[in-house]
């Protein structure tokens, strides 16, 4: 007797009746043949990419608050580097402006401090309160 007991015989590698058939899945190990353009070529730098003077401009901006004279010098160098390649450098410009302002304020305070010290010394006032 047959082992199928009333069922139809299906040859091997043939779809079974009543079983849904799905499309074959691509082999993940096979090399894909997509038609992507070549990455080589002359493309402009991506947005947010590095350009000469960018990092130095940020450093100059930070130094504008900590040590304005150094911030002034660093921001000027960063601005010059960016200008040479035709790129805008906002942090360098802001750092340069703030460095100049803070340097002028610092010089004014130093002058006022020196004037106050000279005035106190020339007043003849002593620590114990005698003139």
From TrEMBL:
Residues passing through the membrane, by range: 55-75, 96-121
Could you tell me where the Pro residues compositional bias lies? 12-26
User: Where is the signal peptide, in residue numbers?
Assistant: none
Q: Keywords on this record?
A: Membrane, Transmembrane, Transmembrane helix
Q: Which domain of life is it from?
A: Bacteria
Extent of Low complexity compositional bias? 1-11, 27-37
Q: Where is this region: Disordered?
A: 1-37
Identification of the protein by name:
DUF4190 domain-containing protein
- In its UniProt entry, the species of origin is given as Arthrobacter russicus
Q: What is the lineage of its organism?
A: Bacteria, Bacillati, Actinomycetota, Actinomycetes, Micrococcales
